[in-house]
């Protein structure tokens, strides 16, 4: 019988129900053994819908379940630190939805807890586990597009009518930078292998939505005079793109963070499409997590990476609300 990592899920959020739980079920290594909500009826309804054996009416009960090997946290952002630390203190590795926390200080406390308890903590940027990004880096490293001169990323969608959504609670970590801006930011850091030095962000702050940033456009200054320009939003038409511009060509990723793995390379030889395998990014994420937990591989992305990403988000948010350039 194949070894399985038994997952417990803290909360019934849409990302869990629609993407992560189905991804774990499709993975080679994982099974979802329990789900918890502060509302037992909701937990039982979700468990029945997704064929999850056990439902709990409190998060504490799930953390106390000795049969659970790892915890996935899709709770609102302001609850990430508390419940991740409580799970790690219960001896359970944690996959925490992005952004990992409300700020770098919280993220650092989570990283410290991972070190002190000796359990694995990972931030759920699922797109990073698809091999297309390794392929993109190979193309860049081979010199096909020359030296990188800039990166442009977008992630926008329109959900502004749902004013009760947790994304529109400022104290809970609402806003487009937290929700989707973190994707192009993390992607630029991944591709460049460097940290930005400063951020300048202009945002649409909406009083109708508890004064969160409903749209933000920004520039991150990286070493070597390279910049990421990006925009993110929750009150705009859907876009999900990444462009890497070089001196001799460019790479265009039309669906940068979702399960459409093709991309295009433009260089002196013309244009070609790179078609990557149709793999479930959430399943790949679960498999990578399990193999780290089992000691079969080293973590590709450590808690320190999550802290670094939060430092950039902190600077972006400060810039957006102060309308000033902010050092990272």
TrEMBL record:
It holds the Pfam family GFO_IDH_MocA_C3. The keyword rRNA-binding does not apply. One of its GO terms (molecular function) is oxidoreductase activity. It comes from the Bacteria. Residues 133-252 form the GFO/IDH/MocA-like oxidoreductase domain. Signal peptide: none annotated. The keyword Oxidoreductase applies. Residues 6-122 form the Gfo/Idh/MocA-like oxidoreductase N-terminal domain. Keywords: Oxidoreductase. Belongs to the Gfo/Idh/MocA family. This is Deoxyfructose oxidoreductase.
């Amino acid at each position: 019988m194949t070894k399985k990592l038994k997952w417990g899920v803290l909360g019934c959020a849409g990302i869990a129900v629609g993407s992560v739980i189905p991804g774990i079920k499709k993975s080679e290594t994982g099974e979802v053994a329990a789900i918890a909500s502060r509302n037992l009826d909701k937990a039982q309804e979700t468990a029945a819908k997704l064929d999850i054996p056990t439902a709990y009416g409190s998060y504490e009960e799930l953390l106390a379940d000795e049969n659970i090997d790892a915890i996935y946290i899709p709770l609102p952002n302001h609850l990430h630190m508390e419940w991740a630390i409580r799970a790690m203190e219960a001896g359970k590795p944690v996959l925490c939805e992005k952004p990992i926390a409300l700020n770098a200080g919280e993220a650092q406390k989570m990283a410290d807890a991972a070190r002190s308890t000796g359990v694995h903590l990972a931030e759920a940027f699922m797109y990073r586990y698809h091999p297309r990004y390794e392929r993109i880096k190979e193309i860049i490293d081979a010199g096909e597009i020359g030296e990188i001169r800039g990166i442009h990323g977008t992630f926008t969608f329109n959900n502004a009518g749902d004013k009760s959504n947790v994304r529109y609670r400022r104290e809970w970590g609402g806003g487009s930078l937290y929700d989707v801006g973190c994707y192009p930011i993390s992607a630029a850091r991944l591709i460049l292998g460097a940290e930005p030095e400063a951020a300048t962000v202009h945002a649409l702050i909406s009083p109708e939505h508890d004064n969160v940033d409903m749209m933000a456009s920004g520039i991150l200054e990286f070493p070597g005079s390279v910049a990421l320009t990006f925009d993110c939003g929750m009150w705009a038409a859907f876009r999900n793109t990444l462009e890497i511009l070089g001196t001799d060509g460019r790479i265009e990723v039309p669906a940068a963070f979702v399960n459409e793995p093709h991309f295009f390379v433009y260089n002196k030889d013309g244009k070609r499409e790179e078609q990557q395998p149709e793999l479930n990014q959430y399943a790949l994420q679960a498999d990578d997590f399990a193999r780290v937990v089992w000691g079969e591989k080293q973590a590709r992305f450590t808690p320190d990476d999550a802290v670094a990403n939060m430092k950039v988000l902190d600077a972006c948010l400060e810039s957006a609300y102060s309308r000033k350039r902010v050092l990272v």
